[in-house]
Write a structure and sequence with these properties.
It contains eleven helices and ten strands. By secondary structure, it is an alpha/beta fold. Helix 5 packs across helix 7 and helix 7 packs parallel to helix 8.
């Protein structure tokens, strides 16, 4: 495996991974890519480009047909898949919350499954709610239906942080929000990620979101990795015509501050 020798500084490595489904559809074609510890990597591309397939290989929801995925210096095949998933935060649109559980119990879900004492579950959940700007005394007893879209997404992030503060996967996490709320949550999440130094793999089709949140961008097209690097590299040195076309409206993109 070509990148394993240098994987000590990496949180995730995809090493020449491919995914072929029954019928011959190739969702991913020989992708080699890595994520440094504490980095935000944005997987960018149109629908069907393979970005979500790559994301789900990290927590073993999808197994590669060939190649290797390394998570925290261990091949994914060496992990118990349930233990692996419980050790990684996972955020989707609307937070993926359990409607019958309170906010506090939603955030504490992984700790409960792991058998932690109830007091520890609630203490952990309360601390994570505070991290995302939600007062546990005010919001802890509410149910998801009583929250706004932005609040539900904050709870989803809090739950991911309760599962793992070092590695989080995010699949179109802000896509269902209105533009103003989306921008606010993007900024809040970026500040929190920098504070905690959490490794994040983010799937998005939104160019502005990728540029605002990603330390590096990885652009996929028809299952292949087209270009990877900081947003400025895509703007200044696109590798081919597809990359240039994809970034055609780059003049309107607000590049993220790296302060």
């Amino acid at each position: 495996m070509s990148e394993l020798s240098s994987s000590a500084a990496k949180a995730v490595v995809w090493d020449d991974v491919a995914k072929v489904y029954p019928g011959g559809h190739q969702a991913v074609r020989g992708v080699s890519l890595s994520v440094a510890r504490g980095e935000v990597l944005a997987l960018l591309g149109t629908s069907g480009s393979g970005k979500t397939t790559l994301l789900k290989m990290v927590n073993a929801l999808i197994e590669p047909s060939s190649g290797w995925v390394v998570v925290r210096d261990r091949c994914s095949t060496e992990w118990d898949p349930i233990a692996l998933r419980r050790s990684i935060g996972y955020v989707i649109q609307e937070g993926g919350l359990m409607p019958h559980l309170s906010v506090l119990d939603n955030v504490a879900l992984v700790a409960r499954v792991q058998g932690q004492p109830l007091r520890e579950q609630h203490s952990l959940a309360a601390s994570r709610l505070e991290l995302v700007g939600l007062d546990p005394a005010r919001f802890g007893r509410l149910f998801p239906r009583q929250l706004s879209g932005g609040q539900r997404q904050r709870v989803g992030v809090a739950r991911a942080l309760a599962a793992s503060s070092d590695l989080i996967l995010m699949d179109e996490p802000f896509g269902a929000l209105d533009p103003i709320t989306r921008r606010e949550l993007q900024d809040e999440f970026r500040r929190l990620q920098r504070r905690l130094k959490t490794t994040v793999v983010l799937v998005t089709h939104d160019l502005r979101e990728a540029c605002r949140l990603g330390d590096r961008l990885a652009l996929l097209h028809e299952g292949e990795l087209v270009q990877v690097g900081p947003a400025s590299a895509f703007l200044q040195s696109p590798t081919d015509h597809y990359v240039r076309e994809f970034f055609l409206d780059a003049a309107a993109v607000d590049l993220p501050s790296k302060d």
